[in-house]
Structures
1.
Amino acid sequence: MPAVPSLPGPFLPAASGPAASRTRCWWGWGYADAQPDDAACAALGALVPGTLARPLPLPRAADLPMARPRVSPPPTLAHLVTDDPQERAAHAMGKAYRDVMRALRGRPGRIPDLVARPADDRQVADLLDWAGEHGVAVIPFGGGSSVVGGVEYRGDAHRAVLSLDLTSMDRVLEVDTAGRAARIQAGALGPVLEAQLRPHGLTLRHFPQSFEFSTLGGWLATRAGGHYATGRTHIDDFVQSLRVVTPAGTSTSWRLPASGAGPSPDRLFLGSEGTLGVITEAWMRLQQRPGHRASASVAFTDFHRALDAVRALAQSDLAPANCRLLDPGEALLSGASPDGSSVLVLGFESATAPVDDRLAAALELTRAHGGRGAAPAAGGDAPADAAVHAWRSAFLRMPYLRDGLARMGAVVETFETAATWDRIPALIDAVRTEVGAAAAKATGHPATINCRLTHVYPDGAAPYFTVVAAGRPGDEVAVWDDLKAVANDVLHRHRATITHHHAVGRDHRPGYDRQRPEAFALALRAVKDALDPRHILNPGVLID
Amino acid sequence: MPAVPSLPGPFLPAASGPAASRTRCWWGWGYADAQPDDAACAALGALVPGTLARPLPLPRAADLPMARPRVSPPPTLAHLVTDDPQERAAHAMGKAYRDVMRALRGRPGRIPDLVARPADDRQVADLLDWAGEHGVAVIPFGGGSSVVGGVEYRGDAHRAVLSLDLTSMDRVLEVDTAGRAARIQAGALGPVLEAQLRPHGLTLRHFPQSFEFSTLGGWLATRAGGHYATGRTHIDDFVQSLRVVTPAGTSTSWRLPASGAGPSPDRLFLGSEGTLGVITEAWMRLQQRPGHRASASVAFTDFHRALDAVRALAQSDLAPANCRLLDPGEALLSGASPDGSSVLVLGFESATAPVDDRLAAALELTRAHGGRGAAPAAGGDAPADAAVHAWRSAFLRMPYLRDGLARMGAVVETFETAATWDRIPALIDAVRTEVGAAAAKATGHPATINCRLTHVYPDGAAPYFTVVAAGRPGDEVAVWDDLKAVANDVLHRHRATITHHHAVGRDHRPGYDRQRPEAFALALRAVKDALDPRHILNPGVLID
């Protein structure tokens, strides 16, 4: 299969101006001014055989089929609620490929009747009460970056739909400097909360790809995976306590460094994806800002030997903060390697001690598995190693490139999973083979399927796949849905989780339902009945 | 308050012979032949003013009030079930001070009608089915080392009581050497599972004080805290997947290194203390056996500066495996320091690299907080540092000493908690002051209240308290219950958890009920109704 060539060039305008002054793209990723223009889209499309001759036009919210709101808020809550069409359109879906494509094709999901922006817990509770009384579905909405159908309404069992946008609740309310923790409102976007922590010398250091466009509450509700490639990385492990407004009352757990008192209350709400309650704030464990860093990249001729090297690293005491293994296609696409090598991107950081020795030990370990190490790039904020830099830059650009390719009618999406080491090689091979065959059959063109390991553990790893294929004009979403069904079947046969950090939402329900123990499903339904007896919260996600 | 002097001497016979040939003590801790004899008890008692002149006699199971079993098992299950009085007595209670004292005074809790020892999941399920049909309460029982009333029946809402002893299910069923994991049956005692892992070069490295007398299933059901004093130490973090037999069906989660698919199924059962199902096996994450070790002790004149040193260590990258801070009384009692200093016991270990540099860095850090470091004792299995050795030895002897003092009518018990760093100093002071005053008032004698930090985190610590006081003859349990109520009140006011690793059981219910968010209580009751609709599993624990 041909790999998409490296994209070092002019496809994306540089970020311009401070975030607050920039306009978010309602139909696609990130900022509107960072989306590829028509010429850039056409150049991207030329790299993928079988795509359109010219880009699909930019969609306009005003063109969407939008019914009048079927409910009105009561006067006491009216100031929190809007029915502005642009707002409703921007809250209709998340940012998966299938969401972008539906917007481009003018066939979005059901558009919410209203958008509410509560400012405190009381207002959240009042909105839930009102919604419960009037049969209104409530979709909690943070940054709206879901790629699994987590923030849209499907079906027609509810009288109306309210998108509950938490981003007005974005303050860091308290900081415990000595104990390195802060109480943070759930609606704070990544940069918003980090800016408030910076004066205290502290950082959450949770940097998912969506960092700029997702919120603490969204990370908590979806068990997001973050910055650290080894050790603790899921947001779960950084939670000291949670505050959750449910239709049955507000749950506030104690701030504790650890506890053995019954099943963890927090762990029930972490990953509940807005179905059991609305997370409104959390005490989070923070880090000191790291002053010591070192990074390097290591090339491998043999991907399977690279897997062994990464496993050895994950089972050592070295604890790299970054330990991302790119397969040859991914290395090529990101500009990390042009020669068909796999590339391991390694980074170490510490607030308290130099890390050069750890990097040196890691490089020595990789050499024992055939790794060809570049010279380490020590100190400073910007890693000097070109491959590391190329990878980071591509990582942040990738969702915009996806949207540009979508405008050319291509099928471009990612999915991720995790499995134990014994299953990893066969799993990756099966995804390539089976999804590749399905794509060729569906589109008549070969597809590109790349893989990287985003997070590694002593007992397994999290592979992340990128699929780039031609579409069928007007039928792109159906093509992707078919490929995803094939992928999900591979994951299930290899006992690989339906999601390592993208969440379940609506798109992953079939895979989740097969994976989840039935006794746990019974338990989860019982909890849903107890906390959300009218079933207004994010209907269709996780449970029916 | 006077501290109990160091006990270096002949109070305990040395362990004799292999474990399999030794008799367990039915009424007290551990092995019968390791219990202090009458002379040793008297010598212990002489150290605590106000205790009895001679030890209470050893209790005999045959003297206990024991009704005939109120149910008989069906013929198909009869071979798994016994009504032998000695067995029933040994399964009547855990090993808390109040359990030991009730046995010594001939007033045990309700004795189970029957004891069952299933050999597989099918038999566990059949026993649950039978119990459900006949209104029989089922108390899952591992090593029986609960110190919170977790394995006894209270009340009379059930027709009969079955103690479900899992220790016949004690095999390591599969080992994944490359992925460092094993599938282990829940009834394996610590030494039993470690002996099966050793030939593979692997170890769970979960060494609670009860290690010899507690099981994997017990650790999982109670969220036990273990070997590591920093970082991941609760058994929760080492679980790859769980198998749980519930009255509503068996729950088996997938083996995964990590997952973001909904709330964690395993985390609902971890800490469920036998109320939602019977954990029958788990895939556990293992460690390579550490070949590199170094340990040392550090003395501090000022306990509060020692707290600062420990916090700095917990917030560094150094990750000591042992980082236990003993207050002056605890240091004296364990023989770690005779001069009124606080003592920090530090240990590092690694399977992959020398740890001497980490120990040296840790010692340097403690010196900045007034620590007086002894020379490090590097390498080898046995730490050369005398204070470290004294502490370890005392740690394992302590429960036997407690039983010896109990036979002298003393009140001797421990309790533990965890809180964020900002609360630790005032919390420890309040426990000393308030529990000390209550003990003096109740017994007319000053009490000894010692404290150590068993586990430390970047954001807080787990203090562990030992109380030694005179009793009131015949009324010892009531004295302890009163002191514990005072302690629990202090914990609640300081927002310190009712338990860091001893679990909730029945004894901690009042504190747990006040700590747990009410919305979570609603959820937990709903899960109980769904998975154990007849409410036969461990009634009274966690929920009613």
2.
Amino acid sequence: MKVIETVDEMRRLRRTLAGPVGFVPTMGYLHEGHLSLVKRAREDNATVVVSIFVNPTQFGPCEDLEDYPRDIKRDLTMLEELDTDVVFMPPPDEIYPPQFNTWVEVTGLTERLEGAARPTHFRGVTTVVAKLFNIVQPTRAYFGQKDAQQAIVIQKMATDLNMGLDVIVCPTIREHDGLAMSSRNIYLTPEQRRSATVLSQSLKMAERLWTDGERNAEHIRSEMRQFIERQPEGQIDYISVADTLTLEELDTITSAALVSLAVRFGKTRLLDNVVLRPYQGK
Amino acid sequence: MKVIETVDEMRRLRRTLAGPVGFVPTMGYLHEGHLSLVKRAREDNATVVVSIFVNPTQFGPCEDLEDYPRDIKRDLTMLEELDTDVVFMPPPDEIYPPQFNTWVEVTGLTERLEGAARPTHFRGVTTVVAKLFNIVQPTRAYFGQKDAQQAIVIQKMATDLNMGLDVIVCPTIREHDGLAMSSRNIYLTPEQRRSATVLSQSLKMAERLWTDGERNAEHIRSEMRQFIERQPEGQIDYISVADTLTLEELDTITSAALVSLAVRFGKTRLLDNVVLRPYQGK
């Protein structure tokens, strides 16, 4: 496994790779969710590149950039075990030199949900991902369904800017009690950790309502809200039932819908989602 | 010479090209300025790709998109004569499909000079050039010094987003009386055409002042302004003596400086510039 820290060296190495390259961009502090992406990339491609870069531009001024959990040694061990070929882990000023001044922005989509709560977040995400795509030049790039809006925004960017690669979205990986894996879960107190299962439970309830024929989106939102408010810990940021492409809130569910929510436990904001998808036959 | 109209076909053809690819993006209605770029690309590369695309997103709402001059047949004949390999001329909705929503923007630099006069212009330029770069994947891309700020903005974008290609800026090509070649020169009435030589003449004057030791930028601007105002036709939009990298206006010229101006003749806005560059030795 090669560990590379500069853009120039990554570019040089990329030129020597002939077959398909699978790429998993991460901010490190890897968990089973990230590892599932690496495994999938390993199955699909001749070469697997994983980046570890805590991207400052996607954090807001009052967010947890400084405190974001890091454990490079453990990350590298885990990636080595999965037969990763290349780890690209540049220092911040290799990606953002002092005069850096260019941004990639998906409009519309990014103003909703997470974008409404974190106004410059997606601009930071799309800019760094565009840069990483240009440096690594992957054939396929892998993202988790857990950050559903991020995956949709990146797919939109890749399509709109003709990036010529496949953006592949892999299923959310969960703890045994249903909590979606996230590097931020370690911030939770034991009590918050127990309460945090309301996210996945409320989504299961939404699925059940939908399977039973409920098509009124506001009814689903309101049932979820009541369910979550029954426990005292979590503060709801949003509960959304939206179109899977435009992320516009729905009144009536007529085709696929993304049910997503953000709930704060103290300073920790947790996300989760499920897609309600009509049965398409075989 | 292959003429290609779809992104997919351009991409397929690109995969078959082994050596360096030189790329000249144009809006068509080619003149000697464009052709000098194609000739240079021909010298430097195994394959030469020229695009012809009148990019709607770089025109303001009151600008000349509909009237922009077009003569595809003549363009293709000229390109064939220069041994161009590929002409990529997509229709507008191939580049901007209905749901298009992603923008590439260089900040700072683009707020000055042309950007101050045309607020969404450079966002349109950088977005379409980023898309064309992703589609054509050139080794080298060629731009004219005539649009000096555009060249600087594109170089900045390519660097900031790690596009991994060389942006090469070629000298301005001029008519016999000094007028910089531009597709928009055909809009000029005969009288305006005669007056339009004040742009290059005022730049020659600036060069002369500088060669004679003048380092006060405001003095140079004011001499140019007086010179241009002596003829009644042209309305000055701006006269600038600026840093060649940041485009910040200078008080005193201490190293290289970009002297640039925009002058309106009726509805036609003409640009020209010269770089004052200290003698570097051999």
